[in-house]
Write a structure and sequence with these properties.
alpha/beta; Rossmann fold
Length: about 130
């Protein structure tokens, strides 16, 4: 990651959530939203086009399994890092996210500042998991 704004792609099947986070990300001086998606179906195509530094992705969505999409993203764009955004932060979910190549996990129950902190930490090359 360079001194340029952190490019973030946000994926959540609740469109209002994705768009809200997109606006919050754009309001940060050091971040820029490059788009939102409502499923993991188009993640690889859009990631190749948008080249996000960070992809924040919900784990429970219709369509393609988000963990499978993350595994492929790690292969196709190894410089892009992923953060799982989930309603679950139990050890099994954390292990699944790690195995899929995620650099972090943020609980949907956390406040917005936790998501922004995780984006910044992962952009610096740090992992960011609960516990």
């Amino acid at each position: 990651m360079t001194g340029d704004p952190i490019k973030v792609l946000f994926i959540d099947d609740t469109a209002d959530t994705a768009h809200l986070y997109s606006r919050i990300i754009d309001a940060q001086a050091d971040m820029r939203s490059v788009g939102t998606l409502s499923s993991a179906d188009d993640l690889i195509v859009e990631a190749k086009r948008l080249r996000p530094d960070i992809t924040v992705i919900d784990l429970v969505m219709p369509g393609r399994n988000p963990l499978d999409a993350l595994r492929e993203l790690s292969d196709v764009l190894p410089e892009s890092r992923a953060i799982v955004f989930s309603g679950h932060d139990d050890p099994r979910t954390v292990d699944a996210a790690l195995s899929a190549g995620a650099w972090g996990l943020v609980s949907k129950g956390d406040d917005v500042s936790a998501v922004l902190r995780a984006i910044r930490r992962v952009a610096r090359g740090e992992v960011c998991f609960p516990g």
